[in-house]
Amino acid sequence: MRKLAILTSGGDSPGMNAAVRAAVRTAAVEDIEIIAFEDGYRGLLEDRTQRLGPRSVSDILDRGGTLIGSGRSEEFTTPEGLAKAAGALKEHQVDGLIVIGGDGSMRGAHELVQRGIACVGAPATIDNDLGGTDYCIGFDTALNTIIYDVSKIRDTASAMDRVFVVEVMGRESGMLALHAGLACGADAVVIPEIEFDYQEMFDRIRDASGRHKMHYVILVAEGACSVHEVAKRTTEETAEEVRVSVLGYIQRGGSPSALDRTLACRFGARAVELLAEGENDVMVGVLGEDLVTVPIAEAAGAKHDIDRSMYELIGRLAR
Amino acid sequence: MRKLAILTSGGDSPGMNAAVRAAVRTAAVEDIEIIAFEDGYRGLLEDRTQRLGPRSVSDILDRGGTLIGSGRSEEFTTPEGLAKAAGALKEHQVDGLIVIGGDGSMRGAHELVQRGIACVGAPATIDNDLGGTDYCIGFDTALNTIIYDVSKIRDTASAMDRVFVVEVMGRESGMLALHAGLACGADAVVIPEIEFDYQEMFDRIRDASGRHKMHYVILVAEGACSVHEVAKRTTEETAEEVRVSVLGYIQRGGSPSALDRTLACRFGARAVELLAEGENDVMVGVLGEDLVTVPIAEAAGAKHDIDRSMYELIGRLAR
Amino acid sequence: MRKLAILTSGGDSPGMNAAVRAAVRTAAVEDIEIIAFEDGYRGLLEDRTQRLGPRSVSDILDRGGTLIGSGRSEEFTTPEGLAKAAGALKEHQVDGLIVIGGDGSMRGAHELVQRGIACVGAPATIDNDLGGTDYCIGFDTALNTIIYDVSKIRDTASAMDRVFVVEVMGRESGMLALHAGLACGADAVVIPEIEFDYQEMFDRIRDASGRHKMHYVILVAEGACSVHEVAKRTTEETAEEVRVSVLGYIQRGGSPSALDRTLACRFGARAVELLAEGENDVMVGVLGEDLVTVPIAEAAGAKHDIDRSMYELIGRLAR
Amino acid sequence: MRKLAILTSGGDSPGMNAAVRAAVRTAAVEDIEIIAFEDGYRGLLEDRTQRLGPRSVSDILDRGGTLIGSGRSEEFTTPEGLAKAAGALKEHQVDGLIVIGGDGSMRGAHELVQRGIACVGAPATIDNDLGGTDYCIGFDTALNTIIYDVSKIRDTASAMDRVFVVEVMGRESGMLALHAGLACGADAVVIPEIEFDYQEMFDRIRDASGRHKMHYVILVAEGACSVHEVAKRTTEETAEEVRVSVLGYIQRGGSPSALDRTLACRFGARAVELLAEGENDVMVGVLGEDLVTVPIAEAAGAKHDIDRSMYELIGRLAR
Questions:
Q1: Burial of D115 (0-12, 13-18, 19+ CB in 10 A)
Q2: Is pTM, for the whole model, over 0.80?
Q3: Which of C39, C103, C127, C187 is catalytic?
């Protein structure tokens, strides 16, 4: 193998740079050239590339975001766009493409495979909603960002005796809200996968409000319902002061955590090895301590199951 | 002097606990008893108190929020409320009251002085908008929270080539936005004190958008204008993708910074000393490295001036 | 089941408090009383206990260290000590004991089982060197502490063109050094499990020193060799300025990471459930996403294997 | 003015990059060219330069260390070295030199002034030991690093009932130990400027050791005495378990705090303005909220006085 392409696609997640660095340096050891397409599939369609060498990825391991850019592209999802993208890759005479991103990015890679491009995926999305892997790059960093921010909100909730409704990311997945909720000691968690018992929550708040030093923190996955709606109903039902906080984009960035970095290093390096070994149409993943591969289509199709016992545990551990 | 009261009032700010601890332990050295009124002036009206000793303030130095609670009270601002509050303090036979809080809290303390209660104030508000002191407790911690969060947002802005409009706290004061804007390298800052030149910003964004790797971060003090309005106009004028982030309550909490802790320790201890020395109706402050006192009414009345040269510097340092 | 005991033993690790909280609140739901022995097995021998209820573990989830104290005890490892300990537990009429700690603590629990005490273990050690579980409580937090501190050292290494030899914890295990080394982009890692090639390192440093902006960071597990010896040899062989940094006790403390918190919550709760289900002489662990149990003796006996491919990856990714 | 030179010298401190960025971009607005000498006065003697433009200082505001390198040079302090350095600057036809560093760096700048080079200094040293300014760049970041690390050590001190002796930087100045000691609630602080009362400390420890949950943290400035000596004596006198922790180089690095960033931005920009206004042989400083200038020789000669009242406050606030 002589030449590979790499791109990061979809919402950025912390650790993408570490994965790119690992791929580039692993390729360098094997004398494989690497070019990056900028801004994800968009840059592929517009044929915007940079050559990456071992030196050009210095000092990016600990950086959030993605220095080669990411993005979304409507055109890419059309038959014409896909044909154009495959054409561009063939033009550059690359022996394979490494796609770092979430489920949309994996579906894109699978389409390119159908058009004759060897593709290996590395899962990177703070939503952690791909199948076939315990962890996606970025999830652990986002979790840590959330819990440290919620602990700041809790300071005020506690000082002012208030209820806080906090929105965290997760359009279709409650993974972030679930893990963060357990980790930060949330009083309740609202996620798309499980029906929420509002009456029980209102009862608990009313009950707590009798005691002194009432405070209550509810985490809501953005895809589950509107935080403003939750806040409104809670105010009406409990007569407590309720405040809303939308964590928003701060959940995406930041220097990656140790776990995301080791994962990203291993995923990025393994992706190069897999292509060099002739593998195609697979995504690298981690199960326990072991690196594994899973067919891309399977990874993108299967949702990561929610652990109901963790959901119930949150309820049991709340006071 | 034999007995003092203490309370924290208004929005909580990081370092309030450190100030309470310093006051309690300083009082203990002088064999002065201290009681805390819970939840600010509200607890004063409801006569909710705790006795604080040197041990009960262990392990609170590094905690955000305020463990004796804070709050706002409409009733307290009425003549009847003030009379009732003064009565409660006399009932407890305290020789003085330490009020830790922002401008509203200082005004309250000044009113209590008119009703025969010896009061000393310690400035604590992340808005940093009191006169007679360079710093209020909490400002520095909030600034650090903002800049680390904006750097996370910048990761995404940079990865996705986007404009971000970020709202920071400050209803009547642009201090937080101004200092944070300089510290995080914001491209523009919108504050209530200075008229903002939108056309210049639109020109800059249009100009940047020609170059590759455009990203642009605008900090807006909540009292200056609506971030959603800014985002809407910017989209219309520049055709760029614009995103909004409201940092909200995470700016209030968190373990206090070194500066806020040293300040809070010094303010809390000095407040006790001042009351013991027979001072009254003053707020402790810091100018340069020196502790000073300023009449409470003056501190609450005077706004902290915005440094125009810092505002201009932000513009010059933006690319 | 009516009554359980709990203790934290050995070196403290971040997340121990979260595990205690989870155990106490899980027990409370089942109406099981919980007492804590203070300072590990030492407090068991000295019969020092506290009763813990759902409220007494409020606000400890995010605290490093262990509020019920930990410690080591020589006496406990003697037959007399063990008999005395078992006697104390029987005196308190507890139906079981939850032991949170590392391999020494697990061996102690296994001994108590031989003396008629039902024991369940929860692995907590930053060394992460127990068998039967991917993670022990505290490992992930320690890793994050190390990588953020090494990145500070790297700032100076880079500014001053220096070689840094950094000692991290791990008397018998290179797990921390290995994972941290990959995560922070160390140039070399010295661990007890794998023989280190000094000549190759000296060659690399000499080679780098020809280029401008030389800097080189070596992580050494404390059990592998002396950092001062490594520094001395490196200076002699390469004529570079070499500095030593011993991270020391800062690796043990700090607010637990998200991963350590979710793990600790799950382990603590599961330990109670296991005892209630009649399980005995097992340690709870996590493999991938699943909670598992492993015989205590097996967990304490088996070392956690080092992943050689990660070791080699560090070498390949270093410039 | 058409051309300026800039360098960072001595031990690196967080915020140096922000100062360089501010100088470069301020110069760019005035159409002044800037070159950087690499690695401080050493690079000046070896005539190693880089041209800096507004774009080359992108993304360095939040980086610790100094990207243009720093260093110490014996040769520079000799008459021959100084003559050579002045010659190099004249060769490059620069209209002035900006020196960012500590007292040694300022003395060097003053010597260059005697040799016909216009120099303006910007104080940057975590020791904060220059005269004529409240703050030097880097001090506030180092303080924050210290207090968060000491709080980790305190977790273990508290869990294990131990005495910890922690060494912080400061060869000739106790500023860091003093401010950090107050901010982290140290039980005692040993600094070069004030004689330490060991007997009083031993008495306190013996006294505390009677009570349960003894822990004691002593901060020692490296220039005051040996931490190992303090530990040895404390063990002998109190029979407690004493541990030593040397924070070392982690105190130098890290992303600069908000205060250090605003300071560095203002200092860097002002240095350019001062040279453009024809000022020479002065250092920029900050007193309260105002930027000031002080003759370089005066700044380097005068020590920053220790605030005795802060020292005494630490003693009073310790339990």
A1: middle
A2: yes
A3: C127
